[in-house]
Amino acid sequence: MEKTYHIKTVHDLQRLAGMEPNEHPLFAVVRLEDLPELPSSYPTSMSYGFYSIGLKRNLKGYVKYGRQVYDFQEGLMAFSAPNQRVSYENDTAVGASGWLLFFHSELLAKHPLADTIHKYGFFNYEVSEALHLSKKEEGMIESIFENIHLEYHQPIDKYSKPVVLSNLELLLTYCDRFYGRQFITRNEADSDLLNRFEKEIRYRFSEGSSTDSKIPSVTDLAGQLNVSPNYLGDSLKMLTGKSTQEHIHFHLIEKAKQKLIATDKSIAEIAYELGFEYPQYFSRLFKEKTGFTPKEFRK
């Protein structure tokens, strides 16, 4: 397996890539067209100790985030949080265009983004779930990158950080909106995901399932469908109004109802069969979802 090289700081990344030294210690923004030819020693599999946002067009070969591979010929946006694995082929960026933005979490200190950035689920999406932009949307995003780039090359003063963070927050807000649009307009792909999810979760709760007596987790289901847990959750929420966990609980309670009505097994036996370690946890969830205790429902 290819060794993953951890790049701890933006400064380390610039040094490895042969870029110009930092204008600012906590972030960097660069046009892909301005990237120097990467040295042969530059790693092709890495993880960052910081966040990255990329608007990328005409990349050669592949870029791989986690286990998923994506071709960026059409022009897309992708995001990564600290410690996510990224790999690609040599010379991927030659002839490419777009933007790359890297920033440390420390940049967000004392700003609302420090508490809210984890709410932007796309930082944990796989690259196969990259953001597809319309020409109009791409122009809006480009203008924000331009603003950050302009500020990056200004002398640092007391306004530098607020200006950068205001533009970063605007960038993330737009991307959040555009992802919402994407979930709506990509009906065919998302409907297929919903159909596959429903088929998988029905199987997990069927009597013949090899996973019977084990409650499926969000991570398990997402892995089976080859998407990230956040992407699955956002898709289901947009299409059905319910989270992945709510879907799991619905099927779990329906199966519990069947067992309570069709068998004489004790409440504890049913709880264990459903995958609960402690029967009281089952009774508590059943009461929360139905308004009845299992014993009351059976009567």
Kindly report how far apart the N and C termini lie. Answer: 58 Å
Structural class: alpha+beta
How much helix, percentage-wise, in residues?
40-55%
Count of individual beta strands: 10
Give the CATH class of the largest domain. Mainly Beta
Number of domains: 2
CATH topology of the largest domain: Jelly Rolls
Order of helices and strands: EHEEEEEEEEHEHHHHHHHHH
Strand residue content: 5-15%
Low-confidence stretches: none
- Return the CATH architecture of the largest domain: Sandwich
- What is the overall shape? elongated
How would you describe what is shown here?
46% of the residues lie in helices and 14% in strands. It is of the alpha+beta class and 299 residues long. It has two domains: 5-185, Jelly Rolls (Sandwich); 188-298, Homeodomain-like (Arc Repressor Mutant, subunit A, Orthogonal Bundle). The strands form two sheets. Strands 1-3-8-5-6 form a five-stranded mixed beta sheet. The chain has a five-stranded antiparallel beta sheet with strand order 2-9-4-7-10.
Topology (elements, then pairings):
Layout: E1 5-7, H1 10-17, E2 27-31, E3 45-48, E4 51-57, E5 63-65, E6 68-70, E7 76-80, E8 85-88, E9 97-103, H2 113-116, E10 131-132, H3 135-152, H4 160-185, H5 187-204, H6 218-224, H7 229-240, H8 244-262, H9 267-274, H10 279-290, H11 294-298
Parallel strand pairs: 1-3
Antiparallel strand pairs: 2-9, 3-8, 4-7, 4-9, 5-6, 5-8, 7-10
Helix pairs in contact: 3-4, 5-7, 6-7, 8-9, 8-10, 9-10
How is this structure best summarized?
The chain is α+β, with helices and mostly antiparallel strands and 299 residues long.
